[in-house]
Design goal:
The chain folds into two domains: about 200 residues, no CATH class; about 150 residues, no CATH class. It contains four helices and 21 strands. A hairpin with a 2-residue loop joins strand 17 and strand 18.
Length: about 425
């Protein structure tokens, strides 16, 4: 009996140690899984971001400025967004779009036969707006634009080849530069260029207008000031979010540089459809409301990169940003609405910097991405009375971050 009692005591102690050890192993395995998912996600981000950036007006030797696009960042700003603390019951997070950042990497719209010699191979040619009546064309009151080939104007064979490079559903940027002087009157003020976005509703056609062969572009109609209409939704005139920012205080990127009327000479650039871009965002799992997932979407669909993501912040280092004393970490801006650069002689140290930089993706030269993940809530009973230092939840957290220089946008700022 004594031996049995001793055996039971020793066995109980052994099982207690074993149980504690197994709990520790399980906890470490769960944490390792979080760490691995975050590392894989940041590696994929690095691969995509390293190749981001394209000169939208490449091949045009006579344009007054070069217009680059690489990444569009949509920041959720603490203090202006909804409270983003987890609930005390299931520790789930509120609406992801209000609590997490998102980014779009512009994809090359490839797969066409380029008529001109100066354009990158496989990309649609840049068009130049050509009003047949010599007047301006409105994108808010008319659904038709007339355009010429920028390199080989009014040649039927060229225009016929051009039209095959444009598909219904493609998004077009209309970019107007001043014909004289350094600024141009847009809807709200004068800036170095004016911009708007429309979506093609059908394949272009070659038409004769006043004895001149032109491409006829039938498109969606913007709002009265040139800002996108029908967003969010299937009828949005800016499906890639180039001008739309649902988290910005005013709702738009390029708010002050928008325009609804453009004259002959404005550039028309096809940036493809939303499926030709790569987007990163945080969404709630369709099968588990307590699981916020980092999702990467491209032309092949969407893939979950990491589960239980509780932090996704994207900061931007801007070209020629000389702002002193910024509260932003190392001058990485985590509020796209506060972008400021001195590229046009502006003084970013002024108490009220100029209003032409907010959300301007053409200024972005480097990206800093931070990810925070967690072990699933209530998965480890030993953490029931544990509160982590990040959000106070009963789970362990891991963090990963990366800084990526957008090589294609950093080579030479005016001839990249």
């Amino acid at each position: 009996m004594v031996a049995t009692a001793v055996f039971l005591v020793v066995a109980g102690a052994a099982f207690s140690v074993f149980d504690s050890h197994m709990a520790s192993i399980t906890r470490e395995e769960n944490l390792s899984g979080v760490n691995l998912a975050l590392r894989n996600a940041t590696s994929q981000l690095q691969l995509d971001l390293a190749g981001a950036g394209q000169n939208l007006l490449a091949g045009l030797g006579n344009n007054q400025a070069f217009f680059s696009a690489g990444v569009n960042i949509q920041n959720s700003v603490p203090g202006t967004a909804a409270a983003c603390t987890p609930t005390g019951t299931n520790f789930d997070y509120p609406v992801p779009s209000a609590c997490f950042d998102a980014l779009t990497i512009f994809g090359a719209h490839a797969g066409c036969t380029v008529s001109g010699t100066g354009f990158p191979s496989g990309l649609p040619p840049v068009l130049i707006l050509q009003d047949p009546n010599g007047a301006s064309e409105s994108v808010s009151s008319s659904s038709t634009l007339y355009a010429n080939d920028a390199e080989d104007p009014s040649v039927v064979a060229t225009l016929t080849a051009d039209k095959n490079c444009f598909n219904a559903g493609d998004e077009l940027l209309i970019i107007q530069y001043p014909t004289g002087g350094s600024t141009l009157p847009c809807t709200n003020a004068s800036f170095t260029y004016c911009i708007s976005a429309v979506t093609l509703t059908q394949v272009p056609t070659v038409t004769d207008q006043n004895n001149q062969e032109l491409l006829q572009l039938t498109h969606s109609v913007t709002a009265s000031s040139g800002d996108p209409a029908g967003c969010p939704g299937a009828s949005c005139t800016d499906p890639q979010g180039v001008l739309v920012n649902v988290n910005a205080t005013h709702g738009y990127n390029f708010y002050n540089a928008l325009a609804s009327s453009f004259t002959t000479g404005a550039y028309i650039v096809d940036i493809g459809s939303s499926t030709s871009a790569i987007t990163y965002s945080v969404q709630v799992s369709s099968t588990n409301a307590d699981d916020t997932q980092l999702v990467r979407c491209d032309s092949n669909g969407c893939a979950v990169l990491a589960d239980q993501v509780i932090g996704f912040k994207v900061g931007a280092a801007l070209w020629n940003n000389e702002t002193v004393g910024q509260a932003e970490i190392a001058n990485y801006f985590y509020n796209a609405n506060a972008y400021c650069s001195e590229w046009s002689g502006a003084n970013c140290n002024a108490s009220s910097p100029p209003a032409n930089d907010p959300d301007d993706f053409s200024l972005i030269r480097a990206i800093r991405v931070s990810l925070i993940g967690r072990t699933a809530p209530f998965q480890d009973p030993s953490l029931d009375n544990f509160a982590n230092g990040f959000d106070g939840g009963p789970y362990l957290v891991q963090q990963a971050s990366t800084v990526v220089d957008l090589r294609n946008l950093s080579i030479t700022d005016f001839q990249n």
